[in-house]
Amino acid sequence: xxxxxEGYLEIGTNDRGEVVxxxxxxxNGVGHIVFSPSQARGLxxxxxxxxxxxxxHVCTGISATWCPIHGDCTCxxxxxxxxxxxxxxxxxxxxxx
Length: 97
Fold this sequence. Notes:
This protein is of the alpha+beta class. It is built from one helix and six strands.
């Protein structure tokens, strides 16, 4: 089943377990983008962060356990706050910048 945003795009899945974003075809005939489930989740997270930024939401401080832009802290040790994959505290996060 697909979700439609009238006139712009349609989001569905294919028989290979991938997420498909169907767009109005461009002048080159390209009309869809295929994502793995992991890529689709990453895109959803990035879109949500950008939507929050566009609405004027501001990052919380670096010691936060939740941020309206980056979400929840996933650090196992809440005193160290340095897990490598935490959306707030990993070295690759731009939270608090």
